[in-house]
Protein 1
Amino acid sequence: MSTSKRSSKRGTSTSAAERPRPDAIDAMILKEDLRIADVHPHKDLDLLVIVLNSGDVLQARISDFDRLSTATETQLKKWRLIGGGLGLHWKELDEDLSLKGFIRESPTRSA
């Protein structure tokens, strides 16, 4: 029995060995079914608080993101979830940020 699977591209196939394996953060997100549930930007504190469906809270500095750092408080509050909660999008700012990136860069992760 072959381990090859058909790719979505016509005429190509990928073997199990060729597919990239998820890294530790991807594996954790998948295993724990983590998603972003809410976001609270605080421009005056240079703080973006990311609340996960697990109850965990991640923090990021707004100033670490060029497009967010120049945004108004009103613009920062106009975000939406993308990828079923795996990312955030600010249409007006043309900015997309991922849960994976927040987990990787967050100085604190607490329950």
Note: Residues 43 and 73 are 6 Å apart (CA to CA).
Protein 2
Amino acid sequence: MRDTIAQSQPSGRSYVVALDLEDDVLERLVAFFSKERIAAAKFYGIGGFRRATLAYYDMEAKRYLPIEVDEQVEVVSLIGNVALYRGEPRVHAHCAVGHRDGRMTGGHLLSAIVRPTLELVVEELAAELHRTDRPEIGIPLLDF
């Protein structure tokens, strides 16, 4: 059984991050985490997307099955974390979006373009978080 608890210390810095119209969400987040030298954090946010690709992880196939969202939607909830993977910040996020007619779509965030804004609260964690490849699962997971 693997250890599932990271050593914890008091939290680090907190940020409010606002992404602008047409920003690529994951690209901008990785750039922000790199610039601020944040190796471990949690974040949450709301806003809107012009389009997005969410996904469902198929354990048998060991791959993400894309869910294309090709219309403007409200970001009802975006939550995630960042940990180091091969020395670089790696974002893991899940998202729920609301359509014009009230339908909801949710899943793992593979990509998204902002429209009109995305407002995030980022809380740096003092614990060291790293992701390690897990071939039996097919994706890198947190490794303590």
Note: The first helix runs from residue 25 to 35.
Protein 3
Amino acid sequence: MFAAFPLLALPVLVYNLVAITLVGGFGSTVATQRFTEPLFTIAMTSGSPWPISLGDLLLAFALVVLFIELLKSTTSRRIAIINHSLSMILFIVCLVEFLLAPAFATSIFFLMTLMVLLDVLAGFIVTIIAARRDIDLGAGGEAG
């Protein structure tokens, strides 16, 4: 049943937890500041400093999770349909938060919402293509 859980819910959940802890909660407008202030700096070979923020780490984590989700979407098990449905619900929740809550009106959350949308689209497209291939193979096998 864990395979049905959309893993992109994890970075969204982390964002929600950080947003809730802000003064004012979901109505806070300081989310951009919280997510963009540098946590640490890495000295690059060029001598330039590379400031890393919480938003940078969250987006990197979300990209890794998106890759795993895309790999999961290639399975043709029945549980994949449940995963796609839950991912669609997650996208709707993200879209509502982005449009209605000031703490979620950030570029970071927009990009995470876009990743969830890409997961939904990729999941359904891969499932449709796999189903079409199964139908084509089934029809070809009967004719031959």
Note: The chain has a mean pLDDT of 87.
Protein 4
Amino acid sequence: MAGFIQELLEKRAGEQFPLHEAHLNTQMVRVLRTIGFERNYVEAREQYLFDAAGDRYLDLLAGFGAFAVGRNHPKVVAALREVLDADLPSLVQMDVSLLSGLLAEEVLATTPGLDKVFFANSGAEAVEAALKFARYATRRSGVVYCDRGYHGLTFGALSANGDDIFQDGFGPLLPGFARVPFNDLEALERALAGRDVAAFVVEPIQGHGVFMPDADYLPEAARLCRKYGTLFIADEIQTGLGRTGKMWAVEHWGVEPDMITMAKALSGGFVPVGAVALRKDAFDAVFSNMVRAPVHGSTFAKNNLAMAAGLATLRVLREEDLVGNAARLGESILQRFRDMATEFEFLHEVRGKGMMQALVFGPPKSTKLKISWKLLEAAQPGLYCQMITIPLFKKHRILSQTAGHGINVVKFLPPLTLTESDADWLLGSVREVVADTHRGTGAVWDLGKTLAGHALKIRGGRS
């Protein structure tokens, strides 16, 4: 007999869009309707979504990376059911739990040089904790972050956000935060030289745009941090836990940071969980005596469901060699995209590592296509990419996204469970859609005109 949640899902099926329009984010509903992404998804398995019509979609967003081990992984589900069935005490608070200790042990086995873990509820909360720990441990107030960087939307994390669209209108933000260009070591050294900076926080590969570091950037940034007494925080919330073909992206450059923030994939996509792994001296500076034992915490952070989800996820990553799959298949996909770039003048560059992939589009050389490009860019920068992501979804049933505001970059962030047949599905679909844009006419350019019209109306205040 179905429970009340199942009854609700069946009785109210298909009402999600009107409910969100009425009670939640109306503008997000408008966006989804405008680009034709309205679907009634009813099931999810591995890297696939299924709608009420029975169509299967290849999910290359993976919940912004949360579903690294695939959706509804049976081993993670089984672990959560075990916890629910066991009637375990959770969040006793005046106690310490076994599962959180075990998960901390497992996390630290993957992070050489780091000795302690602080658990949180999300990536933004993990970043907030890391910034607090850095300030207390160094007795400095400054924080340096990178242009285009993204670390979350709570106030401390937002103050370290390198994209103005997220900051505009929410100021004044926290004092003491300074932005430097990514990949600019001279600018970083100037920012650190005053010896008043507590932390440099950086994504090893920037999520918004999938911007790659120069070969010497992260190692030299770590060296500069050591030179000036600044703590190096690697934000691996999106790049970590196997996404790039290494457990942690910093491993590609041989960097050992003072702290690593993580979240998203750590939960298996089920129960929100974030964490900071850090050096013992920084941790102990904050929790320096019994009076200070409760100076930072989070009510739900070490709940049994979250800890079990993390333990199960790490086990799946190991047992199914998903990090190895991300390295092998991910690099194969990237190389095939690079080969494709030699055929199409709109496709300028391919960026990424492992299962973090980006296609960078730019102005074509031929006159007719160049005029069309300029018209799209005049209406709204980055609009061309919607002519890629929308047909990929509507015609080829591939869910993807643009990689940032106002840039012509399409991003793929698939589950690490992706298969060779999925790769063929992706590559063939992208080839067809990009080829369509090179014809200069047809349905895809009709779509471009429609999108440009919407963009101009919004810009003119007639939305």
Note: The domain at 74-319 is CATH 3.40.640.10 (Aspartate Aminotransferase; domain 2).
